[in-house]
Design brief:
By secondary structure, the protein is an alpha/beta fold.
Length: about 325
């Protein structure tokens, strides 16, 4: 596939293998820009990108903003507290008003699954999903895949174990869709109460045994345990979760391959799903993920905005 034709990036489920590979190869070409003395190219000069986040974010928001600025685009940050939504305006009306300001792209994070799909049909700017409810977080999935490919050379037949709250994780879903399409073998592991019913129908192996998940893995992707799940009674306590499913150096040395790699989408709950000696140790690719997130998001912005511009010209 030589070109990107989609106006939006809403999820990896709907992308073809060729489209995912195009994003990853484009990201590889952009990564070098961040190593230059002047970390900027004029690729998206004149474009305006709006970051509209309805949920807290550090890595994703700042990564998208840095990516946009390195491509010379103008950016505008909008939060729920500073928007007219607080006065009763509907989200559709807010987006139509933003569209009327001739912006080119809206990066949206929202707690409602599927909201990006709905809004993308109402407005002409590109919409990039920066996380929607429990649905998907496509650029996180892409940067995770990019990081694995960078270290392993290929994703084909690489064994990836995703550990934690699979039911509520948009990161897990994007990883599963993307990894499977590029030939990886995926295992999901967590307490039974945090594993979706019929998750095996996505072509993944399912286990509630952390040692089993560790033994089979080339790469372990540890998910943040969301403390509100503990309050909802989905597992007895954070301490018990840490004992049974927390990834520690002792468990890795006992059960995992010597060359296993460990990832985490952040933010970390140190001492719960992952211990500091793993997060900061030789196994860890966590900061590589952060670095690669900029290159991947540069690629996504470039491809979607170029496709939208071409479509408008036609």
């Amino acid at each position: 596939m030589s070109e990107w034709t989609r106006k939006d990036l809403l999820g990896l489920e709907e992308l073809s293998t060729e489209e995912i590979e195009l994003i990853l190869s484009t990201a590889a070409s952009f990564k070098e820009i961040s190593t230059r003395a002047v970390k900027k190219v004029p690729t998206l000069r004149g474009k305006t990108i709006v970051l509209f986040f309805f949920e807290p974010s550090t890595r994703t928001r700042s990564s998208f903003e840095i990516a946009a600025k390195r491509l010379s685009a103008d950016t505008l940050n909008i939060t729920t507290s500073s928007s007219a939504i607080q006065k009763g305006e509907t989200l559709k009306d807010t987006f139509k008003n933003i569209e009327a300001m001739q912006v080119d792209c809206i990066i949206l994070r929202h707690s409602s699954s599927g909201i990006g799909h709905t809004l993308s049909k109402c407005v002409t700017p590109s919409i990039i999903n920066a996380g929607d409810g429990c649905h998907e977080h496509p650029t996180q999935g892409l940067l995770d895949m990019f990081t694995i490919k960078e270290k392993k050379g290929s994703l084909n037949n690489v064994k990836v174990s995703i550990i934690g709250d699979i039911t509520h994780s948009r990161v897990a879903r994007s990883n599963i869709w993307g990894l499977k399409k590029l030939g990886a073998q995926v295992t999901v592991c967590g307490p039974r109460t945090l594993l979706p019913r019929d998750i095996d129908k996505l072509g993944v192996k399912v286990t509630t045994s952390l040692p089993e998940a560790l033994k089979s893995a080339d790469v372990i992707n540890v998910l943040r345990i969301q403390r509100e799940r503990q309050e909802a009674g989905l597992f007895p306590s954070l301490r018990e979760y840490a004992i049974r499913f927390g990834v520690t150096r002792e468990k890795l040395e006992r059960f995992a391959r010597k060359d296993v790699l460990v990832m985490h989408p952040g933010p970390l709950n140190r001492g719960i799903e992952i211990t500091p000696d793993v997060a900061d140790g030789s196994y860890s690719l966590i900061l590589d993920q952060v670095t690669n997130g900029i290159a991947v998001r540069m690629a996504v912005l470039y491809l979607t905005l170029q496709a939208n511009a071409d479509g408008e010209e036609e």
